[in-house]
Specification:
There is one protein chain. The chain has 69 residues and is α+β, with helices and mostly antiparallel strands. The mean pLDDT is 89. It is built from 3 helices and 2 strands, in the order αβαβα. Helix content is 45%, strand content 13%.
């Protein structure tokens, strides 16, 4: 998670989407220097049930659980 990926915008968009689509879920995969700030942002926006931070996920697991592979 690096600033250039602008995950903060995705988190804010999740808040807008969740207002109309309560079933929306965002899974953020990976780690990096921005993770703590992004987790705080999600909590401050009340998105603890909407945005999930998975950390590092091996590609094989990612393909199975998150990509329907």
């Amino acid at each position: 998670m690096y600033p250039r990926k602008d995950i903060a915008t995705l988190i804010r968009a999740a808040g807008v989407l969740a207002a109309d689509l309560p079933e929306v879920r965002i899974r953020v995969v990976g780690d990096g220097p921005e993770r703590g700030r992004l987790e705080r942002l999600a909590r401050s926006l009340g998105l603890g049930d909407v945005v999930e931070f998975l950390g590092h996920v091996p590609f094989e697991t990612l393909a199975e659980c998150c990509l329907g592979g």
